[in-house]
Design a protein that fits this description.
Blueprint: H1 3-14, H2 20-32, H3 34-56, H4 63-72, H5 81-88, H6 90-112, E1 117-119, E2 127-129, E3 132-135, E4 140-141, E5 145-148, E6 151-154, E7 157-158, E8 162-165, E9 168-171, E10 176-177, E11 181-184, H7 187-203
Parallel strand pairs: 3-6, 4-7, 5-8, 6-9, 7-10, 8-11
Antiparallel strand pairs: 1-5, 2-3
Length: about 200
C-alpha cells in the first residue's frame, strides 16, 4: 500500500467503514511510514475535537442534529471495485489485455486481408494458378499445408495437416491427407487459430 492509498482509507477507517484486510494493510503502512502516521494522528484528533465540540461544547446539540451533521460530512471517494481487482491481479490483467489486443488486431486483419497466402515446407511441390493452389498427382508435401484466401485442390499426398482459411478445398480420390483437414471460415475460429499459432511459435 502506498501513501496515496493509505490517505484515502484513513477517513473510512475512522468511520469503521473498511474491510478487515484494508484495516490490516493500513496499520502496517502506518507503522512503517512516519509521514502518514503523523497525518493520521492529526486527522484523528481533528475528528475527535469536532465531535466533542458538537456533542459536549457550548453548542450542546441534540443527538439528532449531531447525526444529521455527521451524515453531511463528505467521505473520501472510494476506489471502484474493478480498479482494486486490477491492482491485485496484474498478471491476469496483462494476459486479458494481450488477448484483447490480439482479438482486435486479428479481426481487423480478417476483414481487410484478401491476399492469397500459402505456407508449406515444400512450396516447389504445389502449383499456384491465381487463387488456386494445387498439389498435383504424384507430388508429396512432407509437412503441413496452409492455404489462406484461396482454393486448395489436392490430387497428391499431404503428409501433415491441411488448413484452409477463408477459402475452400477439393480432395480427389487419388489424394491422401495424413493429418487433419481444417476449414476456417468464421472470424472467431480464425482469431483462435492466430492466437494458438502465436503461442506455438513462441514455444518452439
Amino acid at each position: 500500500m502506498d501513501c496515496k492509498q493509505a490517505s484515502s482509507l484513513m477517513h473510512d477507517y475512522l468511520d469503521e467503514d473498511v474491510t478487515h484486510g484494508q484495516a490490516v494493510e493500513l496499520k502496517l503502512h502506518l507503522e512503517g511510514c512516519s509521514a502518514c502516521k503523523e497525518r493520521y494522528k492529526k486527522l484523528e484528533q481533528t475528528e475527535m475535537m469536532l465531535f466533542a465540540t458538537i456533542k459536549h461544547g457550548s453548542i450542546n446539540a441534540p443527538d439528532e442534529l449531531v447525526d444529521r451533521i455527521m451524515c453531511k460530512i463528505p467521505t473520501p471517494r472510494k476506489q471502484q471495485a474493478w480498479i482494486g481487482w486490477i491492482r491485485k491481479h496484474p498478471a491476469l490483467t496483462a494476459a486479458a489485455m494481450f488477448l484483447l489486443v490480439m482479438l482486435f488486431s486479428a479481426v481487423s486483419l480478417w476483414e481487410s486481408d484478401d491476399q492469397l497466402v500459402v505456407k508449406t515446407a515444400d512450396l516447389d511441390q504445389v502449383i499456384i494458378n491465381g487463387n488456386t493452389v494445387t498439389v498435383p498427382n504424384g507430388s508429396t508435401i512432407a509437412g503441413n499445408l496452409t492455404v489462406e484466401n484461396g482454393k486448395a485442390e489436392i490430387y497428391g499426398d499431404v503428409q501433415g495437416n491441411l488448413t484452409v482459411i477463408d477459402g475452400s478445398y477439393y480432395q480427389a480420390s487419388t489424394a491422401h491427407i495424413a493429418g487433419e483437414i481444417k476449414s476456417i471460415d468464421q472470424a472467431l475460429d480464425w482469431v483462435w487459430y492466430r492466437i494458438t499459432n502465436v503461442f506455438m511459435e513462441v514455444a518452439y
